[in-house]
Amino acid sequence: MNMKKIPQVVDPAGSKETQSSARESWRMFEIMSEFVQATERLSPIHPAVTIFGSARSEPDTANYILTEEIARKLSDAGFSVVSGGGPGVMEAANKGAYFGKSPSVGLNIQLPHEQHANPYQDVSQTFRHFFARKVMFVRFATAYVIMPGGFGTLDELMEVLTLVQTGKIRRIPIILVQKSYWDGLLEWLKHTMAHQGMINSEDLDLIEVIDDPDEVVNAIFSHYETRTFTPSTKEQEILLSL
After folding, report:
1. Which of 8, 55, 162, 234 shows the greatest Cβ crowding within 10 Å of its Cβ?
2. Tell me: the pLDDT tens digits for 155-186?
3. Residues 158, 182: contact at Cβ < 8 Å?
4. What CATH number should be reported for the domain whose range is 42-239?
């Protein structure tokens, strides 16, 4: 049986599929470039503490003022302070560190409704891709301080807990500030998630709740009494797989 060949019409400009594939390939190079630039720029900031929290906290609120005080004490103690570079808690974290002894670092993100970088940054790095930015939050952190916040803050908290729980990063302090804000979540983690076996009860030990700024700094130093701030060779290899 003779089968007629169907003629192939070649679009000189290339098919939509080809154009899309080429665009994706170039996007991979953009992502690689973003990682390389950020790694080179941020490598000198060690040791660093990453502070997460709401962009909606106004300068005259308790959360803003407390964040600024914690960041200043961390900076004076020798830690670079890393935030998302925007307003609210991010600004408070950068502001406290900016007037301290150690660098204030902002990891900014390009958004459809543009996030404006706060002016209190010694080191400012802007990202196009959320996941590249999130890797950098984790990669250079000696500890995490989590202030009250919304969905973004919860996302960052849960990602950090997951990475430590699964051994993708080393165990470092994860400190929640403002006990009254986090009590409901902690009760749910304990009495629902852990009770139903969705997490181990020991996983709750990954979290500390501290409201006093001096105690936040002391808790971080206490964690490193028997080890250095710098990740071991094995831990550095693990970080490469983030």
Report:
1. 55
2. 999 999 999 999 999 999 999 999 999 999 99
3. no
4. 3.40.50.450
